Amino acid sequence: MLSFNGVRLAFADGVVLDQIDLEVRAGELVVLIGRSGCGKTTLLRLAAGTEQPSAGTLRNGFANASMVFQEPRLLPWADARDNAAFGLKARGDARAERHATAADILTRFGFSECDLGKRPAALSGGMQQRVAIARALAVAPDLVLMDEPFSALDVGLRQELQALVRREVERAGTAVLFVTHDLAEAVRLADRIVVLSPRPSRVVAEVSQAPASDPGDIYEAAAALMRRPEVAAALAAPLRPIRAAVTPSPMAEVAPAAGE
């Protein structure tokens, strides 16, 4: 289990996370949602061990974690199979073994034998992100950290990959901590939705649910969440006054004063 107890993280410019209490259990898909800049990715970095809390306790009982980023971050000179097998190579697995594992996952993800030999430049954005997910899953992690991995994809492809991730997680029993700013995506994916406030970020709501697949159910569940005042306050962007940009006319600058 991954657990945050009273975790606080501060940098020189202020407090980012404050009094975070959160648990991610084995086999559970937890979605973090909040406004851009609230500290969701920072919380993932804490879970990954690349940041340390300023206060509180963080315990990670998972033995093998991997991460999927917003961008695929593939090696441009390597083909899809070698990119998916990158973690296995780093671990020291034999070439034939790691290629077989990568090919098996990519085949489940819809890759043909021809696709396996393509370099990233020859793959669509959706295929590149499939390779990135395959790379994370190839090492058989017990925890996967996912940082808005579908934010750059169109709606149809995003939904396809959401279903793929949900299926693979259930198949392997992997725990997932998933970051998004899309409430519909959270409802589609999560066993539990955790809503974070703007900075300094705190947990303002936790909702356990059964992941939804029907579009009507998804939007009804998202609307029900937004009717909760604490969720609406955390997620709704603040209104800012619109100020018209006034550019002095060059003619006004040279116009003669009255009486000249």
From TrEMBL:
GO terms for molecular function: ATP binding. It holds the Pfam family ABC_tran. SUPFAM superfamilies: P-loop containing nucleoside triphosphate hydrolases. Residues 2-223 form the ABC transporter domain. The keyword Cell membrane applies. InterPro entries: AAA+_ATPase, ABC_transporter-like_ATP-bd, ABC_transporter-like_CS, ABC_transporter_ATP-bind, P-loop_NTPase. Keywords: ATP-binding, Cell membrane, Membrane, Nucleotide-binding, Translocase, Transport. Belongs to the ABC transporter superfamily. This is NitT/TauT family transport system ATP-binding protein. The lineage of its organism: Bacteria, Pseudomonadati, Pseudomonadota, Alphaproteobacteria, Hyphomicrobiales.
